[in-house]
Amino acid sequence: MRFPPLSNGAAVSAWPAGVARHVIDRVDSTNAEAMRMAPGLSGPTWIMARQQTAGRGRRGRAWTDPPGNFAATLVLRPHGSPADAARLSFVAALAVHDALRRMCGPHLNLALKWPNDVLLNGGKLAGILLESIGSGAAIQALAIGIGVNLVAAPEPGDLEPGALRPVSLRGETGLAVLPDDLLCALALSFDDWSRQMRDFGFAPIRSAWLARAARLGDTITARTGATETTGRFDGIDDTGALILTGPRGRQAIPAADIFFAGT
Ligand SMILES: O=C(O)CCCC[C@@H]1SC[C@@H]2NC(=O)N[C@@H]21
Questions:
Q1: Within a domain: residue 2?
Q2: For the chain, what is the radius of gyration of the CA atoms?
Q3: Cys-Cys link to 57, which of 61, 235, 251, 260 (CB 3.0-4.6 A)?
Q4: Average pLDDT, the chain
């Protein structure tokens, strides 16, 4: 099937073999729908909604997306360990980055922010939320939810103090990318990167992610609950934890929100 070239980002028609897709007009959250559908799915499936009424973000935050923005969830039955499942968030961030570059061109000023945001011109363009059915060694299904502000970004006043400026692709560049086209590009890109991880492990994912990382080598702050750690951002380890080097030496931080000075 060929999508008509309605956007000024390149239209994408190919779709990875063995992967299903469901497109829904309106749903509470594609991640919630993924959890409901997972028991009946026979293989990897992308669920995309044209509108979400109760989109969810990381750490219990809400995620708003009007029609025209991208909201989709990939449901997988992960074969590896729970740690491998967590590493798929880096695969997803790389896939979003590369799909947008492929559609919009190499000059699109994209970067990745740990753990898995995609930035455009330094503002937050896309977020990723991993949720699972089952836990530990018994993960039955993994939902990788991806939201991209293609046409509109939330008002900064609706966000928590210190949150990165939200941006949209259209607002920053004037480019129009259709959610259906991005879904195809993203599904292909995710397929490529997840094969890399299956065949060669996390090392190539880690290096590709670091090559696209924002503020590598800069001083940043990681906040987990009431605990704040400030230090030099020295990369990620082989579990995907953030490496910060500060007055207390080198620390690996498995989960946090990070803040850049001056944003
Ligand atoms: O807080 C974040 O940065 C993560 C946002 C993830 C939003 C996406 S939109 C598609 C999927 N469905 C949801 O309810 N959330 C994710």
A1: no
A2: 18
A3: 61
A4: 91
* CB 26 near ligand 1, within 6 Å: no
Q: ipTM for the complex?
A: 0.99
**3-class secondary-structure state, position 199:** helix
Which atom of ligand 1 lies nearest, measured to the CA of 58? 1
- How far is the centre of ligand 1, averaged over its atoms, from the C-alpha of 257 (Å)? 15
- The ranges of the chain with pLDDT < 70 are 1-12, 136, 158, 262-263
- Give residue 65 CA to ligand 1 midpoint distance, Å: 9
Residues near 186 by Cβ (< 8 Å), separated by ≥ 6?
72, 95, 96, 99, 146
Ligand 1 binding pocket includes 124 (Cβ within 6 Å) = no
Task: Say if residue 242 is in the same domain as residue 177.
Answer: no
pLDDT of residue 10: 61
Distance CA 261, CA 219 (A): 8
Domain that holds residue 104: 20-211
30-82 pLDDT tens trace: 999 999 999 999 999 999 999 999 999 998 899 998 899 999 999 999 877 88
